[in-house]
Amino acid sequence: TSSSSSQSRDSDSADPLDPLAQFKCATTISPKRGMSVLRDPWFTKGTAFTHAERERLALRGLLPPVPTSLDVQKDRIMEEWATGFKDRREAESREKRELARSGVTPEMIRRHRLLQDLHDRNETLYYHLLQENFRDMAPIVYTPTVGWACQHFAHTYRNARGMYFSANDKGDMHSMVYNWPNEHVDAVVVTDGSRILGLGDLGAGGMGISIGKLDCYVASAGFDPRRVLPVCLDVGTNNEYLLKDPLYLGLRQKRITGDAYVELVDEMMAAILNRYPRALVQFEDFSANHANLLLERYRNHHLVFNDDIQGTGCSALAGVLTSLAAQGLRKCAIKRMRFLVAGAGGSALGVVDSIRQAMVRHGLSDEEARRNFWICDHHGLITTARDPSTMHNETAMKYARPETKYEKADLVTAAEAARPTALLGFSTAHGIFTDRLLKRVQHYASHEQLRPLILPMSNPTSNAECTHAEAVFATNGRAIVATGSPFPDADHDGIVYPNNQANNIYTFPGIALGAVAGQCERVSDGMVMAAAEALSKHTMDVYGDANRMICLNPNDQKPIRLFPPLEGARNAAVDVAVGVVVQAAEEGLVRRHRTGALEVL
Is the bond leading into 488 cis (omega within 30 degrees of zero)? Predict the structure, then answer.
């Protein structure tokens, strides 16, 4: 039952002295509950359902947490009406300049809106198209276009999708999780919207990344779309623009932090895993101070993983291993590499940890492996002289250098001390991999009989430490390059160097598929490393001799592909999943028999 805000027709002739006249209103009796109400164009009111109506109709959690009136919904439509029909030449010019910095074009936005409209109307056709055209559509439903979708989530919102848990739901999450209509869920992607890609705090708009991530689970790894659940935990936002936006759909308050924040996450996790005890939970785009904390809090007891830390680490490690294989070197050659790292956030340390673990696996002690990394944050090189309280991520101190005279040294000075063979970029500082720095790394790598490995991983395109072409030109085609953002291929001296995008899309679907197919107890570091090795082997198998140098020569200019083509994403996901299941079985972490799990795959 829901009540209209307008009075019934009979109220016009009601007795003004009647004490009950003010309570007379039009009432709609709904025979439906939950998602059925939201999907019915006659009964739905969109986000206008009041808190009481949401409780009665089992809608709590199925809509953004703050009810918005029909007038606000009308304003959202009229905003698009106005910008869709008036002369937009000036607006489009300004918009194109903003989009150019993110790598998203107006055509990509048009296609995103087209696909999302289809997703709402015909999910079967949507996933059929996505699966058959994954190479072309992945950048539309996932990075980089999904970043734009999250930024404009409140202005483009149309239909409910996924579940919202908020600070206002404390104490009620265990009951409201049963409002989700599907009895079985294999995978959950949850974000708190605090660090969406390289775009910062987007609050409740973060739901877009959870939806986009699970689209990749379905298209790339074959998950049943009825058995995945996108989740947004709304604890507020520190984004002043969103707090002042009349169309914003989330809680209008500053973010909750500290013990209160952890208590909310604990309750949400307990509610989800109580109803879906075998589901995999992936943490997505949590701020650095919470990402590591939550991963370490749950990883030893539940089937969880953090894509920004473990997935990024897996993708980068796979790229490193493929670069060695393409040079005719064995995996153990990773011990010879030295890394200069720009950035000390969760993703950077996740990658560093993954590479360090590979070095240890191939013979180095933990201390010896740590000596191969030089990490710089926005202050400069981190040494033991650094005061941890001045750092955004204190866990970077475990890689602090003993050479205190280089404390806070810039990248070029740090390179002179480290003599790195590889550069890793997670700084979101555009252009800091200068021509001078790139040439130095090439020089140091050649002394180790290696080609330099350059990985500017920051998103979006405008935040990349260097472009693909800049790395190729500065090293005269000798560098092996992979970027976090999409860039065009580079043509140098008549040779075309294809851009390698080190996208997590190559790893997280396969890791999730393996963990779910094996009914694993948890995701171990060994399973993540096995995923990286499986992806590297798959890449070399796909490209064969075309991706191998004839002989080891640091001056070789042969283009190297570090990742497989996206059109073969399903094959890659299965190979990665098999590697994960085999490793999990060796560690005794599978509930399903290994043979049965492999048969499922």
Answer: no
Decide: 451 and 554 in contact? Cβ < 8 Å: yes
- Other C-beta atoms lying within 10 Å of the C-beta of residue 556: 16
DSSP 8-state code for residue 28: E
**pTM, 2 dp:** 0.89
Phi then psi dihedrals of residue 478, to 5 deg: -85, -25
Helix (H, G, I), strand (E, B) or coil at 62: coil
459 annotated to a ligand binding site: yes
The token duo for 5 is 């805000």
For 386, other C-beta atoms within 10 Å of its C-beta total 21
Amino acid at 502: A
pLDDT, position 95: 52
- Closest to 215 measured CA to CA, from 116, 110, 144, 141: 141
Amino acid at 26: A
3-class secondary-structure state, position 7: coil
Tell me if 284 is assigned to a ligand binding site: yes
Peptide bond into 225 cis (omega under 30): no
DSSP state of 521: S
Residue 348 has pLDDT above 80, yes or no: yes
Same fold, 70-286 and 310-600: yes
Counting DSSP H helices and E strands in the chain, the numbers are: 24, 15
- Single-letter amino acid code for the residue at 418: A
Q: What letter represents residue 29's amino acid? A: I
> What is the rounded CA–CA span in Å between residue 215 and residue 213?
5
263 forms beta bridges with none
CATH entry, 310-600, from 3.40.50.720, 3.40.190.10, 3.20.20.70, 1.10.8.640: 3.40.50.720
CATH dotted code for 70-286: 3.40.50.10380
Q: What residue spans define the domains of the chain? A: 2-56, 70-286, 310-600
Which positions are catalytic? 142, 213
Cα 465 from chain centroid (whole Å): 19
Which of the listed ranges 42-51, 134-143, 271-280 does the model predict with the highest average pLDDT? 271-280
What's the pLDDT tens digit per position in 545-595? 887 776 667 788 899 999 999 999 999 999 999 999 999 999 999 987 767
195 is in an annotated binding site: yes
Q: Which helix (H) or strand (E) holds 274?
A: helix 258-275
E strand or H helix at 380 = strand 380-381
Residue 430 structure tokens = 């555009």
Q: Is 545 annotated as a binding residue?
A: no
541 in a known ligand binding site: no
Question: Are the C-beta atoms of residues 165 and 201 closer than 8 Å to each other?
Answer: no
Cross-strand partners of 492? 495
Tokens coding 394: 């204190």
Structure tokens, 550:
């004839």
pLDDT at 418: 96
Q: Are 173 and 231 in contact (CB under 8 A)?
A: no
